[in-house]
Amino acid sequence: MTERRYQFIEVGTGDHGALRIALNNPARKNAIGPAMVNELLWALADAAEDPAVRSIVLTGKGDAFCAGGDFAQMTGGAAEAELPSKGDYADLLLAMVRSPKPIVARVNGHAMGGGLGLVAASHFAVASRAGKFGTPEINVGLFPMMIMAVLARVVPRRRLMEMMLFGERMDADQAAALGLVSLAVDAEGLDAAVDRIVQTIASKSPITIKLGLEAFAAQDDLALADALPLLRDRLGQALSTDDAREGLMAFLEKRPPRWTGK
Q1: Longest dimension (CA), the chain
Q2: Residues paired with residue 32 on neighbouring β-strands, in sequence order
Q3: Which of 39, 41, 71, 149 has the smallest set of CB atoms within 10 Å of its CB?
Q4: Bridge partners of 106?
Q5: How far apart, in whole angstroms, are the C-alpha atoms of residue 92 and residue 95?
Q6: pLDDT of residue 76
Q7: Which residues of the chain have pLDDT under 50?
Q8: CATH number of the domain where residue 127 is located
Q9: pLDDT at 236
Q10: Calpha distance 21→25 (Å, rounded)
Q11: DSSP string covering the chain
C-alpha cells in the first residue's frame, strides 16, 4: 500500500488483512476537519486498490472516537494540506458507504455529530461502553444536516427526530438497541469483538465481498422495480467468478473452499 505523509490520521496494518486507520487528533478528541477528511479519503482510496487489504478498521487515538466537527478549522483555521484535495465531508460519507472493502468502526469512546456520521456510514460498528453518542449540533444553533442522510439508514425515523431535535446523549447499549452500532461491549472486550469481525471477513471470498458491497450500495436508493433487474445482472457477475465456481465445488466435495479472489 502507498505510504503517505498524514498529519491527522495514522494508517497501519493489522491481523487478517485489516487496515487500521486511526483518527489522530487526541488533543481535540479527534474532532474532524477538512484536513482529516481529505486524509481519510486518500486512505480509503488506497485501501480500495490494495488486494492485501480485506477490511478497514476505523478508530480514534486516545479516549475518544470523534467528538464531532472541528469548529476551529471550519471557521477559517484549516491546517495546510499535505495532499491534494479529494473532496469534503459529504464525499467522505459517500466513499465509506460505497467502499468495496468492509469498514468496521471500532468506537473506543465518544462519537458525536460528524463522528457519529462516520459510525453510521461504516458497515459494522462495535462500541465500547465507555463512549456516548449523540447529535448535539442543535445545542449550538446548528443541525446535523449531512449525517442525517446516513443516520436515516440505520435509525428508526421517530427516534432519529428525537436525536436531532433534542441533542441528547445516549450510551452504547442504547445505541446498539437502536441499530446505530452493531454491538456494545465493555472496553476490555472491544479489540476481541472487532477481531472476530475482521477474521470472519478474511475467511470469505474477497471478490464476492467486493461485488456484494458494490451491489448493495448500487441498489440502496432504487425502487424495487429498478433494484431487482440490477441485482439479477450483478448475480450473473458473481456466478462468473472463479471463487463462485470454487465455492460450489467445495460445497459438493464437502471441503473448505480455497479462494483466489478471482
Answers
A1: 63
A2: 69
A3: 71
A4: 126
A5: 5
A6: 57
A7: none
A8: 3.90.226.10
A9: 96
A10: 13
A11: ------SSEEEEE-GGGEEEEEE--GGGTT-B-HHHHHHHHHHHHHHHH-TT--EEEEEESTTEEE-SB-HHIIIIIPPPPSS-----HHHHHHHHHT-SS-EEEEE-SEEETHHHHHHHHSSEEEEETT-EEE-GGGGGT---HHHHHHHTTTS-HHHHHHHHHH--EEEHHHHHHHTSSSEEE-GGGHHHHHHHHHHHHHTS-HHHHHHHHHHHHHHTTS-HHHHHHHHHHHHHHHHTSHHHHHHHHHHHHTS-------
Any domain includes 260: no
Q: Specify the CATH number for the domain of residue 232.
A: 1.10.12
- Which parts of 61-171 fold into alpha helices (H)? 71-72, 89-97, 114-121, 145-151, 157-166
Residue 1 domain-assigned (yes or no):
no
**C-alpha grid cell, residue 206:** 474477497
Supply the pLDDT for residue 79. 56
The answer to whether residues 58 and 133 belong to one domain is: yes
What is the rounded distance in angstroms from the CA atom of residue 80 to the CA atom of residue 161?
37
Same-domain pairing of 248 and 123: no
- How far, CA to CA in Å, does 25 sit from each of 16, 73, 92? 27, 13, 18
Q: Say whether both 100 and 179 belong to one domain.
A: yes
Quick one: 230 and 117 in the same domain? no
* Model pLDDT, residue 2: 79
Question: What φ, ψ does residue 183 adopt, rounded to 5°?
Answer: -155, 140
154 contacts 180 by C-beta, under 8 angstroms: yes
Q: Which domain holds residue 231?
A: 206-253
- Supply the pLDDT for residue 1: 75
Question: Do 61 and 90 belong to one domain?
Answer: yes
pTM above 0.90, yes or no: yes
